């Protein structure tokens, strides 16, 4: 690991032994990098930071610093310093003693300490503040002192836990740039945690997008923005128009009732999600673009207009410099380069279970973690016949059903949601949703941590408790073969 | 428009009456008696008598020692308990807190009587160790008053302060000395105030464990019961000054540490 300063290997964390806040997290951080953990609150980004700092210990996995396992080292033994979210400056000490705290613990002599403290104050632009009391400082100044207190120890890695979240907008912008130049000057590896995507894109060399305790994508800000790995990243970073579609032929995708030329290539027939950024759509005269639309609203945002258009049943957001009046019919043009195609996540809505019993009428009862299904045998075993309690396969051999593994799946558009939670096959809470052109895609999580994706044209809220209704005929089944492969 | 005759200031009247009758007036009476002799003439003789009498000075010192030892032991026991209660990670935190505060719900003489029986059982005769028994009973009596304010101040302490200490290279002991203790001073001072001052005058405990040595409270009581208002008053006044000085000194100290907070 030549210049990997931090390496996380299969790190897992659970507080109660049941639900994992971090699920199998592996990451390499190069020396001198500015890495940002970005994700919505509760995604586990702060937990990862705390484990690197030593304030929390992972349940499984290892953390390496320059190749040495530091998994169980206490914070005071790690050459890593932290800038805490609420600064955590010591109120009983003045600025000098706060900054010198770490040096005192290392028993640095007085003359050198004086020199280092004033250097640190110089870096954060607060020369001459040594004797000031912490309570007399503004939020921005306290922030700088907290940074000075950390960097004065010359750590190998500096951890920053949402350090700018308490500052007002203008101050935050200023500190972002200052932190970035500080990073360049000092050459220390910075690990920054934020939920602000703009902040992450502005500052970092490498962005780690997280959701649900898992890495969604790792990449440069440009990669994250231009080539989102999945719908979550596309939706979380910036504004985006997302459409479900299918690859019609080579480099041609069909979505939003239109055939688009694309750059990304997938085999014919692949189900896809297409992502188009609002600023990448050009508004032209009606008929001159790939599709036409009618302006439904246009709001001025300072440098551009956020324009919403209705293209048939699909909605499209466009950022443009010109104002188009409501009701104007226009054409929309998208450069193939600006259409980002993501392979549709086929692992959604797959549930592993087994055959529980076969009834005398030839119905098979399948048991899954959250639910059970009772379907005619022929649905599970295509081409099979049922007689005298024995299911005979298409090849004429009797099928041994006992304990046979079965995977059941359904497509999101075939399912429905209901606020009568008892009416559903399973019930859970909406944990996230995206707008996909003409409908919303909801992810519902049940108590046993299984996710169910359901498409619905109406707007529900995150946190709603709903029942998931999947019609029996919507289920597809896959049998576990002898090798255990599906 | 009809004017309402009710003024919120009127609500203060009951307390004002109480204040004048039971606080200000008695204080004036104490001061008057303290600075007059038995014939009612202005005099400092009571003062002179107090400070020139070895026995009364001895009583002051003895009260001070009892109070100091009680406060110190309470502090040493209460601080770790308060810390565990405030920062420990376990369920039913409030139930544990309740257990430590529960003795306050039981009548004070009843508690001491029960403890007395236990001590008698262990020691045979309480008269063998009057000082130790006094301290044991005092500590038992005052411990909850030390735990509560410390618990309150420690729950308000941000955990990230302790983490910051460790982050900057301090081991557990150094975090305790350089971060936790300085930040707990406001709680420690209010706990000490709650224990130290009452402990100086609480002669009931001494009576109950047959400790015949006088402390300030019993000295005042003995003068008053023999109708020597003047000497009793002067001691009360001296105690008042003593307590006043102590309070001002601690407020200064708390003011200094809290100045750094906010």
Question: What would your notes on this structure say?
Answer:
The complex is a heterodimer of chains A (486) and B (262). Chain A is 18% helix and 40% strand. Chain A is an alpha+beta fold and 486 residues long. Chain A has four domains: 4-226, Rossmann fold, CATH 3.40.50.300; 240-343, Beta Barrel (OB fold (Dihydrolipoamide Acetyltransferase, E2P)); 347-405 and 480-486, no CATH class; 411-469, OB fold (Dihydrolipoamide Acetyltransferase, E2P) (Beta Barrel). In chain A, the strands form seven sheets. Chain A has a six-stranded mixed β-sheet, with helices on both faces. A five-stranded antiparallel β-sheet of chain A has the order 13-12-11-14-20. The model of chain A is unreliable at 482-486 (pLDDT under 50). Chain B has a single domain, classed as MetI-like fold (Orthogonal Bundle). Chain B has helices at 13-34, 45-52, 54-87, 93-101, 108-123, 130-156, 159-167, 172-201, 203-208, 216-225, 229-259. The chains are: A alpha+beta (486), B mainly alpha (262). Chains A and B meet through strand 6 and helix 2 of A and helix 7 and helix 8 of B.
Structural class of chain A: alpha+beta
CATH class of chain B: Mainly Alpha
Mean pLDDT of chain B: 86
**Distance from first to last alpha carbon of chain A:** 36 Å
Count of the separate structural domains of chain A:
4
Strand content of chain A: 35-45%
**Count of discrete alpha- or pi-helical segments spanning 4 or more residues of chain B:** 11
Level-2 CATH architecture of the largest domain in chain A: 3-Layer(aba) Sandwich
The mean pLDDT of chain A is 89
Shape of chain A: globular
Please summarize what this structure is.
The complex is a heterodimer of chains A (486) and B (262). Chain A is of the alpha+beta class and 486 residues long.
Secondary-structure blueprint:
The complex is a heterodimer of chains A (486) and B (262).
Chain A lengths: L3 E11 L5 E11 L3 E5 L6 H9 L6 E6 L2 E2 L10 E4 L11 H11 L4 H14 L15 H13 L5 E5 L7 H18 L2 E6 L2 H7 L2 E6 L2 E6 L1 H6 L4 H6 L4 E9 L2 E4 L2 E4 L9 E6 L4 E5 L5 E10 L4 E7 L2 E7 L8 E6 L4 E5 L6 E9 L4 E5 L4 E5 H4 L4 E3 L2 E3 L12 E5 L6 E3 L7 E11 L2 E8 L4 E6 L8 E5 L6 E4 L7
Parallel strand pairs in A: 3-8, 3-9, 6-7, 7-8
Antiparallel strand pairs in A: 1-2, 1-4, 4-5, 9-10, 11-12, 11-14, 12-13, 14-20, 15-19, 16-17, 16-19, 17-18, 21-22, 21-26, 22-23, 24-25, 26-32, 27-31, 28-29, 28-31, 29-30
Helix pairs in contact in A: 2-3, 2-4, 3-4
Chain B lengths: L12 H22 L10 H8 L1 H34 L5 H9 L6 H16 L6 H27 L2 H9 L4 H30 L1 H6 L7 H10 L3 H31 L3
Helix pairs in contact in B: 1-11, 2-11, 3-6, 3-8, 5-6, 6-8, 7-8, 8-11, 10-11
